Amino acid sequence: MGDKTVTRADLAEAVFRKIGLSRTESAYLVESILEEVCATIARGESVKISSFGSFLVRSKNERIGRNPKTGEEVPISPRQVTVFKPSNVMKERILEAHTARSSSVLKAAE
To answer: Of which family is this protein a member (predicted)?
Structure first.
């Protein structure tokens, strides 16, 4: 797995470098996009970003869970959860990167 987590600051820096907005404008743009995505999901709507993936809201029914420490059965209330479904384009890019990384590791081992 990767060593680094991409942060909001990293995204803002990428916008700054690639688009040429000021750092402040880049940070505001990233923050605005993330806020809109969060607000849309909070309303129970899906967010689809072409060539990236979809954030979907799924409903989970009530079920019985078990406290692993005591073994006691506990009801888990119904709730809504957010799930991410990557697009086929994203899946292909990840597979290509994984394949390239694996082949470079094999060549280095030879």
So the answer is: Belongs to the bacterial histone-like protein family.
- Per-residue pLDDT reduced to its tens digit, 10-63: 999 999 999 989 999 999 999 999 999 999 999 999 999 999 999 999 999 999
CA distance 1 to 29: 29
As beta bridge partners, residue 107 has: none
Give the amino acid at 90.
Answer: M
Beta carbons within 8 Å of 65's beta carbon, 6+ residues apart: 73, 74, 75, 76
- Find residue 58's DSSP bridge partners: 81
Domains, the chain, ordered by start: 1-43 (4.10.520.10), 44-109 (4.10.520.10)
Report the run of H or E that residue 43 belongs to, with start and end: none
